[in-house]
Each structure stands twice: as structure tokens, then as C-alpha cells.
Specification:
This protein is of the alpha/beta class and 191 residues long. It contains five helices and ten strands. It has one domain (4-163): 3-Layer(aba) Sandwich (Dihydrofolate Reductase, subunit A), CATH 3.40.430. The chain has helices at residues 30-39, 46-51, 69-77, 111-120, 132-137; strands at 4-10, 15-17, 62-68, 88-92, 104-107, 125-130, 144-149, 158-159, 170-177, 183-189. Pfam families: RibD_C.
């Protein structure tokens, strides 16, 4: 079965963004950007892949991206209706208008049911881009976590997962540290 991976950057105090969706405080160095661009090239936005000269590179790990409306909106505000054109894009929203892109699917029904359908299809993995509410709804469906833990304390903001109290255990598989002070932690769900 296809795996759902939640790949997200968080502060030391567990926030993925500031109270007004700020993310510009995360320190990114050239070496760290290179790691993200090579190891996780599938999930780089299409314009980033093109800038790196990898727009036509074959997908190796993911072929689908999931996101909520708030994660999708910044691209729309820049006039980009298909930010991950190399991936099938699934946006969960009851209010988002259909952008008319053949590669972008707007889902207004149960996210869990749609994710279970996606997991049953043949293909590569599914990347959960965010946000906290969607991650909370899909918590029981998340198979893997890739957490970029940045050396920043935000104080308040949007948590990694918005969910009622329900301790969910994952097993640590890999830890790597980088020159920007970021630690990348990879986990798999304990079954």
C-alpha cells in the first residue's frame, strides 16, 4: 500500500508557522537547500525544480501532494494555480473554487476516505504538505513523518498538528543535522 508522509518544518516549540502564517524566520543555508533539492526533489515546487534544472527529472518517491486551502492559497495569490505540476495535487477545501487545472483536484468531502482511495491506487508515495488542521484530520492515515526541526522558538503560531488529545507513537528511523542548526528527523508509524 502507498504511504502518506507528512513532511514539515517546525520550530523548537512545535509551530509550523507564525500566527499570521509567517515562515520567513526559518534559517536556510545553501547546503541545507541543496539537500532538500536533491533528496526530496519530487516535492519541490515546480518553479524550484525548474530553477535547479530538474523540471523533467523523473519522480522517485512521491507522485501526489495533499494540502488544505490555506496551504494552497499562497500560490494562488502569486497567480500559480498548479504549484506542484509534476505531482497530482489534491486540495481539501469546502470553499476553494476549482482552478480549472487538470492536475489539481478539489475535494469537498471526507479527506480520510479520499486518502484511503489514493493509498489503494498504484503509484509512488503521497506527500502531505499541510496544514495543521488537515494533518490532524489525517493523523491516523499518516505512515511517515519527516520533521525539519529548526533552531528557532516562535512563541506562538500554527501547531504541527491540530488534533484533540490522542497520543500517537512513531518510531525514530533517522536523525541528521545540518549547518543551519536544523535537525531532520524521520519517523515511521508504530503499528
Amino acid at each position: 500500500m502507498i504511504e502518506l508522509t507528512y513532511y514539515i518544518g517546525v520550530t523548537l516549540d512545535g509551530f509550523i508557522a507564525g500566527p499570521a502564517d509567517e515562515v520567513d524566520f526559518y534559517p536556510v543555508t545553501p547546503a541545507f537547500a541543496e539537500m532538500m533539492g536533491t533528496e526530496l526533489a519530487d516535492i519541490q515546487p515546480a518553479f524550484v525544480r525548474a530553477d535547479r534544472g530538474g523540471a523533467d527529472e523523473p519522480l522517485t518517491r512521491f507522485d501526489t501532494v495533499l494540502m488544505g486551502r490555506r496551504t494552497y492559497e499562497p500560490a494562488l495569490q502569486m497567480g500559480i494555480t498548479d504549484p506542484y505540476s509534476q505531482l497530482r495535487t489534491v486540495v481539501f477545501s469546502t470553499t476553494q473554487e476549482d482552478p480549472g487545472e487538470p492536475n489539481v483536484e478539489i475535494v469537498r468531502t471526507d479527506p480520510v476516505a479520499r486518502v484511503r482511495e489514493l493509498k489503494a491506487e498504484p503509484g509512488l508515495g503521497i506527500y502531505l504538505a499541510g496544514g495543521a488542521v488537515l494533518a490532524g484530520v489525517l493523523l491516523d492515515e499518516i505512515d511517515r513523518l519527516i520533521v525539519k526541526k529548526y533552531p528557532v522558538i516562535a512563541g506562538s503560531g500554527i501547531p504541527m498538528v491540530s488534533h484533540s488529545f490522542a497520543p500517537t507513537q512513531f518510531s525514530l528511523e533517522q536523525v541528521r543535522s545540518f549547518d543551519n542548526g536544523c535537525v531532520v528527523l524521520e519517523y515511521s508509524r508504530l503499528r
